[in-house]
Specification:
The chain is mainly alpha-helical. Helices cover 70% and strands 4% of the residues. The chain contains five helices and two strands. A two-stranded antiparallel sheet has the order 1-2. The radius of gyration is 20 Å and the shape is flat. The mean pLDDT is 91.
Length: 153
């Protein structure tokens, strides 16, 4: 299956705009508690900013796709079976990772998940895979727990 650049831009623009609106209207109010504080210090402030930017950029992407509709020399993107399988396997690994975080602590779970994703995407050199899969989660864990004083699962 192949799709032209203008149609891809329009479809992605609609997707991001609708997702941003869904976040603003339903998901953020449902998942993040409302706190009586200054508007810029509220827990919902940053998610609302990001969602608003998603809507804005989605609309701009849609407009860009509409403008490119009649232009020649557009790129044509193709969807291959291997590419689709990579997306499905990645989403599956991420779902397993999120589910495992309820039972396994952050560090071992993240090390295994990152190593599995690196292996899946072709990194077979263990001299690169192991240090990266171990050091990056440790840095993130240290940054959140010691520097930001946040508790990770």
């Amino acid at each position: 299956m192949s799709i032209q650049e203008s149609k891809a831009g329009k479809m992605l623009g609609i997707f991001f705009a609708v997702l941003g609106i869904l976040l603003i209207v339903a998901i953020i109010p449902w998942q993040i508690a409302s706190v009586q504080t200054e508007w810029y210090n509220a827990p919902r402030f940053f998610p609302y900013v990001i969602s608003g930017l998603m809507v804005l950029l989605g609309v701009l992407l849609f407009i860009s796709g509409v403008k490119k509709k009649n232009m020649e020399d557009q790129e044509t993107y193709s969807i291959s079976k291997n590419g689709l399988m990579s997306v499905v396997v990645t989403l599956l690994l991420i779902c397993i990772y999120v589910g495992a975080l309820h039972f396994i602590p952050y560090l071992p779970c993240t090390i295994v998940a990152l190593g599995a994703l690196m292996w899946f995407f072709g990194q077979r050199d263990l001299r690169k895979l192991i240090p990266i899969a171990v050091i990056l989660p440790v840095i993130v864990y240290f940054g959140f727990t010691e520097l930001l004083k946040l508790r990770l699962p």
